[in-house]
């Protein structure tokens, strides 16, 4: 077990560069610079060692695809965003209130990183050991990116959603560090997230205060009237409809969270997307995963990027498995007989189903055929399993290993196959060496086809 020590009532939240003293009457301070639209991505490298930092296993529809420390890190930046994240729920400390910044600033969650990254890679990770009372720090300057490190031995870290008083809340502490990452220094306002020191468990730091809001709005500007807004989405298999306002007629970009982890944290982007101003419909890229979706309208500037909205790709209904049916019969080389199998998928869109029949006489000629109904009729040295009408797929030769292989091209079928139908496939083959009728058949393969 990793040695731990209990902190006093206050611990420091550091930045790696000196503060710029405020020249205005508000209490917040700034450190110089801001995050342009190429630096809105953020990720976590999950090297956190406390079991309590990764024990939140409860999924939340507002944070699809992530639990544990990743969900906590994702949430940590969302209260800085311009509008509510979805319905704003998912943080018990601020129900219906996650997304309070009201500025031309919105972050793009990019999931897992594969390492701690460089000082400009926008990755949050743990750092071994401790340093006095410092809990965590953000490496600056920030305009070209940042890095946040959390001292392993500074506290018992907890991923929430509830954090005991003798531990420290990762979401709260990282919400503070992300305040540095977006350009804020410390404030003297008691209770603000950007206070220099925080008492455990730091859960209240998850929710930015009026002074913090004034700070992010001072750096990025109050959310502009023309800023794009996502107010809801709808998904269908492979497709996403985004509803909102202020979308460009052309030249929109749709930003997705990457699927899986990658060495580069850039959002997955669709570019050149058209809109009627209030709705965008796109096909979802295959490398887009669960996470957030954002819309960047044409033009440059911090007011061109929308609020993040939770997004779970619709991968369609689960397709029932293909199944073997009917009977096979012994042949001259196999005491069991030829058996049907398959490779690829049953997806009509993917069009990659491969029919297999193994246990056939090597080099025999034969033919796959299919139909919509089953029959169990003695035929040749075996059984016919597919009822009429049947469609033949072309004569082929069994290979040296006794396998018959056929790539089912749905664009060149003798009879139609569509999603929702189940078809039965069987292999007929010559087998004079077995005597009798001189031909035999495999069992059959029932294939439910899906979109
Ligand atoms: Zn700090």
In short:
By secondary structure, this protein is mainly beta. The chain contains 3 helices and 26 strands.
Protein traits:
451 residues; mainly beta; 8% helix; Immunoglobulin-like; disordered N terminus; 5-stranded antiparallel β-sheet; elongated; Collagenase (Catalytic Domain); 7-stranded mixed β-sheet; 3 domains; 26 strands; binds zinc ion; 3 helices
Mean pLDDT: 93
Gap between N and C termini, in Å? Answer: 50 Å
The topology string of helices and strands comes to: EEHEEEEEEHEHEEEEEEEEEEEEEEEEE
Shape: elongated
Computed Rg: 30 Å
Oligomer: single chain
Q: What spatial order of strands do you see in the largest sheet?
A: 3-2-4-6-5-1-9
> Structural class from helices and strands?
mainly beta
Bound molecules: zinc ion
What is the element layout, followed by pairings?
Layout: E1 11-15, E2 41-44, H1 68-78, E3 108-112, E4 123-127, E5 134-139, E6 147-151, E7 157-158, E8 168-169, H2 170-181, E9 197-198, H3 210-220, E10 229-236, E11 239-245, E12 252-258, E13 268-273, E14 279-283, E15 288-296, E16 309-311, E17 323-325, E18 339-343, E19 354-358, E20 365-371, E21 374-379, E22 382-386, E23 391-397, E24 404-407, E25 422-430, E26 439-448
Parallel strand pairs: 1-5, 2-3, 2-4, 4-6, 7-8
Antiparallel strand pairs: 1-9, 5-6, 10-11, 11-14, 12-13, 12-15, 15-16, 17-26, 18-19, 19-24, 20-23, 20-25, 21-22, 25-26
Helix pairs in contact: 1-2
Bound molecules: zinc ion.
């Amino acid at each position: 077990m990793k040695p731990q020590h209990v902190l006093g009532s206050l611990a420091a939240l550091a930045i790696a560069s000196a503060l710029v003293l405020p020249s205005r009457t508000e209490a917040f301070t700034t450190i110089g610079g801001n995050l342009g639209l190429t630096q809105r991505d953020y990720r976590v490298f999950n090297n956190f060692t406390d079991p309590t930092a990764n024990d939140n296993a409860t999924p939340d529809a507002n944070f699809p695809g992530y639990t544990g420390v990743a969900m906590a890190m994702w949430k940590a930046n969302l209260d800085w965003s311009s509008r509510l994240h979805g319905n704003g729920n998912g943080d018990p400390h601020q129900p219906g209130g996650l997304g309070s910044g009201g500025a031309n600033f919105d972050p793009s969650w990019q999931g897992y990183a594969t390492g701690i990254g460089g000082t400009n890679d926008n990755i949050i990770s743990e750092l071994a050991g401790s340093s006095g009372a410092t809990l965590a720090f953000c490496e600056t300057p920030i305009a070209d990116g940042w890095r946040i490190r959390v001292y392993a031995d500074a506290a018992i870290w907890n991923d929430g959603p509830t954090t005991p008083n003798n531990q420290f809340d990762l979401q709260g502490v990282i919400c503070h560090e992300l305040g540095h990452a977006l350009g804020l220094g410390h404030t003297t306002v008691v209770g603000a997230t950007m206070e220099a020191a925080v008492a455990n468990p730091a859960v209240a730091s998850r929710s930015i205060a009026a002074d913090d809001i004034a700070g992010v709005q001072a750096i990025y500007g109050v959310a502009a009237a023309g800023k794009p807004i996502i107010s809801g989405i709808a998904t269908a298999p492979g497709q996403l409809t985004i509803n909102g306002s202020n979308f460009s007629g052309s030249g929109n970009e749709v930003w997705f969270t990457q699927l899986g982890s990658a060495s580069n944290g850039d959002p997955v982007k669709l570019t050149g997307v058209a809109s009627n101003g209030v709705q965008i419909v796109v096909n979802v890229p295959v490398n887009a995963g669960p996470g957030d979706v954002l819309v960047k309208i044409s033009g440059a500037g911090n007011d061109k990027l929308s609020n993040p909205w939770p997004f779970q790709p619709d991968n369609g209904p689960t397709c029932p498995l293909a199944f073997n049916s009917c009977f096979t019969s012994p042949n001259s080389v196999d005491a069991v007989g030829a058996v049907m199998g398959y490779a690829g998928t049953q997806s009509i869109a993917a069009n990659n189903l491969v029919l297999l029949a193994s246990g056939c006489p090597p080099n025999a000629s034969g033919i796959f055929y299919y139909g919509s109904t089953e029959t169990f009729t003695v035929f040749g040295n075996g059984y016919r399993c597919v009822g009429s009408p049947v469609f033949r797929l072309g004569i082929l030769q069994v290979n040296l290993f006794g396998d018959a292989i056929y790539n089912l091209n749905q664009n060149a079928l003798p009879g139609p196959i569509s999603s929702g139908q189940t078809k039965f496939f069987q292999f007929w083959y010559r087998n004079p060496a077995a005597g009798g009728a001189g031909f035999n058949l495999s069992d059959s393969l029932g294939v439910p086809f899906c979109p």
